[in-house]
Amino acid sequence: MKRIILLLCIAIFSTQLGLSPPDKTLIILDRPPLEPFKALLEAVGMVESGNDPGAYNHGEMATGIYQIRPIRILDYNQRTGKNYKLSDCYDIQISKEVFLFYAHKKHFTDLENIAKDWNGSGEQTVVYWEKIKSILDKAQ
Predict the structure, then answer these.
(1) Distance between CA atoms of 131 and 111, rounded to whole angstroms?
(2) Is residue 26 part of a domain?
């Protein structure tokens, strides 16, 4: 009986002091989105254009921060039903959308394969990857 009275007194006393449990309000924390390719995007942008969204390579007709070529945007449009023009690739968000489409399409499990695929084929992809890897290593 003494315990019940003691517990009752503690409950009343703690309520008076504001020590009662908080109200049942649900708090949802806003978390930033997951960006698994963020570091790779930054490294590719650095190698391709010096992170310049206005970059243009006359020799390859490559446009924007990730240096998207006409054949890539044509392929992207055919695969997605979009109707982007090469000039749309000056928009960082559109360029990012195109890059991420190709990063995801082959279900690569590592950044090296994604970077090499973005660059093309042949021996130059090894050199390209070394540049990307160097930037990624510095960022860590």
Answers:
(1) 13
(2) no
